[in-house]
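[Automated response] Your request has been received and processed.

Submitted sequence:
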Amino acid sequence: MAARIRFLATPLGRTYGTLLGEAVHDPEFGQVLWEVSVVPARAQMALFLERASRRGEKVFCQHPDTVLDMLLSTIHFRAMNLLGREPMDADSTLKEIRSLARSLIAG
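Generated structure:
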């Protein structure tokens, strides 16, 4: 999450929305974007949760894909909300995402 937030806060990261828009109109490009962006994020989340579970830590109260979608959509929406205004504050956004993630852990 931190790497994604830091990336989206950069000038290059701010072009990601353009890539998403292009993916809607070009299924082949959409597949490539899915494979280099979404698939690795889901695999990383699964590994993260597997390790936490083995350590006996509490895991999320929703399916991992749902949690990942919630966290990433919040990050991406935050990045899009700032378009044309100011760069995303990576530290503040990361703090808020961590808080959101903690609220999704099974009690």
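Summary generated for your ticket: The first helix runs from residue 2 to 8. The chain has five helices and no strands.
If you did not submit this request, please reply to this message.
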